[in-house]
Write a structure and sequence with these properties.
alpha+beta; 19% strand; 3-stranded antiparallel β-sheet; single chain; 89 residues
């Protein structure tokens, strides 16, 4: 399973990324991370980093929902979040 980690050096990196790329396929982003990085059009506050990790595990939707809903603080999730292959932003 491939996981896309999104964070930023400043505040709201994950939120800026999600706003700009809503509807994009996570599989496409994982395959072309350079295409989804901030551009010159983004101001200094609209910055984010993308990292792809691969794990030799299978995780079901119920577990992902549990992690997202019970373990990740809403405000913290604006700064750092993750997506797994097969999802849409």
């Amino acid at each position: 399973m491939k996981v896309l980690k999104v964070n930023g050096d400043g505040d709201y990196g994950a939120q800026h990324f999600a706003n700009q790329h809503a509807g994009a396929s996570v599989n496409e982003i994982i395959s072309n991370t350079d295409k989804f990085l901030p551009t010159e059009e983004n101001d200094e506050y609209e910055q984010w980093n993308l990292e792809v990790e691969e794990f030799n595990v299978t995780i079901n939707k119920e577990f992902l929902d549990f992690i997202r809903n019970e373990m990740i603080d809403y405000d913290h999730g604006k700064h750092i979040t993750f997506y797994v292959e097969g999802e849409t932003i």
